[in-house]
Design goal:
Helix content is about 80%, strand content about 0%. It contains 15 helices and no strands. Helix 2 packs across helix 12, helix 3 packs antiparallel against helix 6 and helix 8 packs antiparallel against helix 11. The protein is globular, with a radius of gyration of 25 Å. The two termini are about 40 Å apart.
Length: about 375
């Protein structure tokens, strides 16, 4: 029945709905961001909790699963903190080198483009205000600070504890003839998110090792810390990879003379990115949902605009879930195809023209 409405009626209704959804997501950011992370963590930890639940009470199995996850997280944080401690060993030398490079850069910009030093300072201040706004958006309010230490663990426990209640609600809220599709969507969503997150963790670990080894061989200071940070940034499609290359290049510029090391870093990271994109991602990140590059970049930028840095990390799993839903609903299948990375060999206009040109069977006889 909706298809019978003309486009000029449907379009404003859809746009109004999108505006309302975005407004609600922005207003309730401090509540929804930890809830979204907790949902992903609960789905990831669910298989271990189910396995432990066969031998012990449900509450105890969930608590033990969360304790194991927290211990692993603390171990990673301890490792990174020990690396960060070494970062400040040569801080004074790096500050001096940075000041020298800044003076050279300001002089070059003034002579080449005519941008005065005062104007350059204004541009840097504006950029700093923009970055502060994003950080403030990420950590806004008391809930933004408490979410990591309180809300996410509590949400995760409660989602895992009330899992059956939530699933029954999702089944019962739809009519009986649609319950089969609901079951398929829930099953595929769980499987896709689990395989996606586990695959990303394995891929990130391998990339961190490759980054660190390459930087250690090239003699870059704080190689392990920068390599691990680069692997984490690599979780952001395409954008993170560019930022990950800039960090070791900047470190080499501040600690070494000449540009040989920087060029070798770019070459090493380009090789690692090639291995990652063509070997690791297709074989290890075995998600059932593949999102094309254009949608990935756009959705990451939209996530950053809406929820800051957390939105960048949550955007890809969110769009993956949307694709699963679109692929299961007849009227939304074109949107599912648009999000996917399968490129058709011919567009619909060519197919229709070929069908019109093809002679009918009666004409042949």
């Amino acid at each position: 029945m909706v298809k019978n409405f003309p486009f000029y009626i449907k379009a404003p209704i859809i746009l109004l709905g999108l505006v309302i959804i975005v407004f609600i997501l922005n207003v309730l950011r401090d509540v929804l961001v930890p809830l979204a992370f907790a949902t992903l963590i609960a789905i990831l930890l669910n298989p271990l909790a189910n396995r432990l639940g066969r031998k012990m009470p449900k509450v105890l199995s969930i608590l033990l699963t969360m304790i194991i996850a927290v211990l692993i997280l603390f171990g990673l944080m301890y490792f990174l903190s020990s690396q960060i401690a070494h970062f400040f060993d040569n801080l004074d030398q790096m500050k001096q080198k940075f000041s020298e490079l800044l003076i050279i850069g300001q002089k070059w910009l003034h002579e080449t483009f005519g941008i005065t030093t005062q104007k350059q300072v204004e541009i840097l201040n504006d950029a700093a205000k923009g970055s502060k706004a994003m950080i403030g958006q990420t950590l806004s309010g008391v809930l933004g600070v408490l979410s990591v230490i309180f809300l996410i663990p509590v949400y995760t426990f409660l989602i895992m504890f009330y899992k059956t209640l939530i699933l029954n609600f999702l089944y019962e809220v739809f009519s009986e003839e649609n319950q089969k599709k609901v079951g398929e969507i829930l099953s595929e969503t769980k499987s896709a998110i689990q395989s996606y997150i586990i695959g990303l963790l394995i891929e990130t670990s391998i990339v961190a090792v490759m980054n660190s080894c390459a930087l250690l061989i090239l003699g870059v200071q704080n190689a392990i810390l920068i390599g691990v940070i680069g692997a984490i940034l690599n979780l952001l499609p395409y954008i993170g990879g560019i930022i990950a290359i800039l960090l070791p290049v900047l470190m080499a510029t501040l600690t070494t003379d000449g540009f040989t090391t920087q060029l070798l870093i770019v070459g090493a990271y380009a090789l690692i990115q090639f291995i990652d994109n063509n070997i690791l991602v297709p074989r290890i990140v075995s998600s059932k949902v593949q999102i094309n590059a254009l949608i990935s970049i756009v959705i990451v930028l939209l996530g950053a605009a809406l929820w800051g840095v957390p939105g960048m990390f949550l955007s890809i799993p969110f769009i993956a879930v949307l694709k699963i839903i679109f692929d299961r609903i007849e009227g939304l299948k074109p949107w599912g195809k648009l999000l996917g990375d399968t490129i058709p060999t011919e567009h619909m206009g060519q197919i229709k023209r070929l069908r019109r040109k093809k002679p009918a069977l009666s004409e042949k006889n």
